[in-house]
Write a structure and sequence with these properties.
7 helices, elongated
C-alpha cells in the first residue's frame, strides 16, 4: 500500500509542480479565511475594512474570499495553459484588504489598521513572486 501511495503522490507532484502548489496553498488559505470572516469576523477586521462593508456585508466578503480560493485551488490542480485568472483570484482579496486597511489608517478610522496593510500586501507579493519564479517551470520549458 505504501508503494502505491508514494507512486500516486509522485504523479501528483509531477502534475502540480511548485506553481500549482502555490495556487493550492493560496486558495486553501483564502477559503479558510473567508469561512472565518463569514461565520465569526473579528472586531478589528470589521473596523479595518469599513469602506468595503459599505459595499457588501461581511458574510458576502467571506464568500468572495471563498470563491477566489476555490478558483485558485482549481487552477493549481488543473494547471491550464493560461492561468492569469488563478493569479488574480489569489491576489485580489488580499489586495482589497490591504487597500481597505490603508484607507482606514489614513482616515483615522482604526488606530491599528496600519499593521495589517503590510501583512496583506506581503501575501499578494509572495504569490506574485512565486508565479514569476515558476512561470517557465509550469509550462514545461
Amino acid at each position: 500500500m505504501t508503494g502505491r501511495l508514494a507512486e500516486g503522490a509522485s504523479k501528483l507532484q509531477q502534475h502540480i509542480h511548485l506553481r500549482g502548489l502555490g495556487f493550492i496553498v493560496a486558495g486553501a488559505s483564502s477559503i479558510y479565511y473567508g469561512a472565518s470572516i463569514a461565520i465569526d469576523p473579528r472586531y478589528g477586521t470589521v473596523r479595518g475594512i469599513q469602506i468595503l462593508l459599505q459595499r457588501m456585508c461581511m458574510e458576502g466578503w467571506g464568500w468572495v474570499w471563498i470563491g477566489c480560493g476555490l478558483i485558485a485551488v482549481a487552477y493549481g490542480l488543473l494547471r491550464p495553459v493560461w492561468d492569469v485568472p488563478g493569479i488574480v483570484a489569489s491576489i485580489a482579496p488580499p489586495l482589497m484588504w490591504a487597500t481597505a486597511y490603508l484607507i482606514a489608517t489614513i482616515a483615522g478610522a482604526s488606530s491599528n489598521a496600519w499593521g495589517s496593510v503590510g501583512m496583506w500586501l506581503s501575501r499578494a507579493g509572495l504569490v506574485l513572486i512565486l508565479m514569476r519564479a515558476t512561470r517557465t517551470v509550469s509550462r514545461g520549458h
